Amino acid sequence: MSEFASVLRAWRDRVRPADVGLPAGAGRRTTGLRREELAALAGVSVDYIVRLEQGRAVNPSPQMLGALALALRVTPAERDHLYRVAGVAPPARGMVPQHVTPGVQRIIDRLGDVPMAVFTASHDILLWNPLWAALTGDPSRYIGIERNLVWGHFMWGHEGVEFDAEHEEDFASDLAADLRMAVGRYPHDGALAQLVARMRSASPDFERRWGEARVAEHRSSRKSITSTAVGTITVDCDVLTVPGGDLRIVVYSVVPGSTDEQKLDLLRVAGLQSLMPAHREP
After folding, report:
1. Do 171 and 152 meet the contact criterion of CB atoms below 8 Å apart?
2. Which of 34, 238, 255, 259 is 20 to 30 Å from 203 by CA-CA measure?
3. In which element (H, E) is residue 267 found?
């Protein structure tokens, strides 16, 4: 058995279902994750996981390795080892960090009473809890650049999300300014450079804001989000930075005792019932 297959199997066995928000269930032959559970978490087919563990699937892509590392809750050192034994160079230090540490993953898993998601410094969404998906739409429906918040805001608009005039202007300006800060920190990240080039070419509004050369971090904001399940909910959006990893935890909260809190409580029960994990072939 190859080293890649060995560590993949060993790390799958050590992740308890409760660690990833899954019920333990009865009649389990292993204390760790089943293959189908890992497949659902990583967004691939069960057959692909089987082939990886048996050494019959070779040359997994960096994107696939990142998804597996995220699902398996590995440390940065373990993630790098997974890349190397798969024959892929680990993410370089000059690249936008995308590794979600086990601690951040536990925060998202355990704080299910508020919508939360994790974004990179370039605003790619990496992880979210079910309530986030119920309120804003399930991000697993999208792939590649479509999962980038800046791309979505300037290319698709923000249908279903309403700001007051001040916050709408600030939000768009902050996104462009924050992305410029990321370019300064990660000048050798090709994907980030390509994102900026495509945005400047495709969106006159983004190009105008980019030309202002403003540098700033995205600030907190207030917005109203319309859910098909419960109607419009007004939330405060706060952005927390993860020390050492340059990830952002975005948290939506509502005023205690308000109608918005009642709607969010209802969404927590009713809105999640239609959410099913997406399966994508590698």
Report:
1. no
2. 238
3. helix 259-270
